[in-house]
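Regression test attached.
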Amino acid sequence: MLTLNNVEVIYNDVILVLKGMSLHVPEGKIVGLLGSNGAGKSTTLKAISGLLKAEDGEVTDGNIQFLNADIQHKDASDIVRQGIFQVMEGRRVFEHLTTEENLVAGSYTRSSVNLRDEIEIVYEYFPRLKERRHQTAGYLSGGEQQMLAIGRALMAKPKLMMLDEPSLGLAPLLVMEIFNIIKRINEEQKTTILLVEQNANLTLSVADYAYIMESGRIVLEGAPLDLRENADVREFYLGLTEVGQRKSYRDVKHYKRRKRWLS
Amino acid sequence: MALFIQLTLTGLTNGAILALAALGFVLIYKSSDVINFAQGEFLLIGAYVIFGLVAQVGIFWPVSLILTVLIAVALGVVVERLVLRPMIGEPIISVIMVTIGLSSLLKAIVSAIWGTIPQAFPAFIPSAPVKILGATVGEDRLWALVIAVLMLGLFNIFFTRSREGIAMRAVADDQQAALSMGISVKKIFAWAWSIAAATAALGGLLVANIVGVSGELAGFGLRVFPVVILGGLDSIPGAIIGGIIIGLLEAYTGGYIGQGLNQVLPFVVLIVILMVRPYGLFGQEIIERV
C-alpha cells in the first residue's frame, strides 16, 4: 500500500536527517516503527504526509509511493485527500475549539458526509469524548486529548492512519486502552496503521510487522516474534539481559553491549 | 429621558458599524496573526466603489451593492496573494509594516481615481427621521444597525456551525495541525482577507451614508483599534460588544459631559479594562493545563 524507496530528507538545505530510508506498509496491517530519539521517525511520517514542507524540509532523493502513485511532491492537503492521515506527536488538538468542533475539523476533506453518524462512530470508540463533547478541548486531560486526536483522524476515514507516539506522556493503563482501540480500529474499520513508538514492548504486541530505525535508516526489520528474539532488540529496546531477566542496576559490573547492526 | 434614548440609539448605531469594521480586523488577526493597519482603507474603498457605481456609472443600487461586495472579495484575495503570502514566515513587525505601506498605497489609489474633494453619498437608503420613544433618529442609522446585527449574526453561525468556519478557527489555533487535517492554510488566509474586505466595504458604505464620502473614512478605521483591543483581538463576540461599548460611551460622554471629551473617555475605559483583563474582555487566554 505504502512504499518508501531509499528516501533522503534534508532540512534547511543542509541537515541530512533520513539517509536512504526504505519501508513497506502492506494493506490492512499494523506496522510498527521503533527507534530512539532523533532517529528520524517523525521525519519519516512528515515526509509521507507532506508536512515536511512547512518545516523547510525536503525529500531530495528516493520516492514515496502510495497505492502505486508517487506522492513525495504532493501538497499536504492532497495527501490527506488520497487517504493518508497523520496523528501528530504531542496530540495537537485545537485548544480553543470544543471536542465536537475538533471532530468536525477532522472531517474537512470529506465531501458529502453525514457528520452526526460519523461523530457517533467516534464516540463509540471513545465514550469519554461524548461526555465532554461541548468542552473546550484545551482543558481535556492528556489521555482525552490523545483520544480526540485519534478521533479526529477517524473522522477523515483514512485508508492509512499514521500515529506518532500516541503513548507520549500518558499513564500505562491509558496507554493500554489506547493501543487496544488502535487495534480495534484496524480490525473494524479496515484501516491500515503505521505506528511510530518508543514503547517497544507494546508496539511489538499489536504490530504485524516492525521496523527499527537508527540515525536516519532502517537497521532491522521483522515480525514481532522474531524481533523479540533478537539479542540487540532485547538489550536496547526491551531492557532484558541475555538470559532474559529484567536488567538490574544491582549488577555492578555492567558492560554496554555493542550494537551488532552498526558494525 | 428623551436625551438618554437619543444618545443610546446614536451610540448603538455607531457601535454596530464599528463592530462591523472591527470584525474583518479580528478575522485576519485570528486566522493569520497579522494586525491589518489597512483595514480603514478597506472601508474607504468600499464606500468609493459603491459611490462610483451608483452615482457616477448609474447602476441600480442593489446591483451595485453586490458588485461592491464582489470587488471587495477580489481585492482581499489579491492583497493576500500579492502582499501577504510572500511575507509568510517573516517577522511579525515586517508584516505589520507591509500593511501600513498597503494602507498608504490604497489611499493614494483612491484619491488618484476619485480625487480628494468630499462627495455626497447617493441617497438610496431612506433617511427620513423616525421617532422612537420620544427620540428622533434617521432611518438610515436604523438600517445600519439592522444590517450590522444581521451580518454579525451570520458570522456567528458561520464560525460555529459551518465546516469552513470551524476550519478557519482551527487554522488560527494551530496551523500545522490544521495542515495535517488537509485544511489548506493558504485558502483559509485568502478567505479571511476577502471576508474582511467585504465586511469592511459594507461598513464603509454604512458610514459614508451617514457622514459622506471622503478620505476621512479611513480615519474611522483607526477607531477600530480601541474596539478590538477592548473586546480582545481574536474574539468575534468581543468585537461586537467592544464596538457597542465604545459607541455608547462616545455618545454618552458627548451628550452629557461635552463634545471633545468623547474622543478621550473610551481610551480611559480601555486602559481600566485592560488592567483588569489584559487579554481584553473576551480575548483568548493562553490555555494552560495544571
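Expected vs. actual: identical. The first helix of chain B runs from residue 2 to 32.
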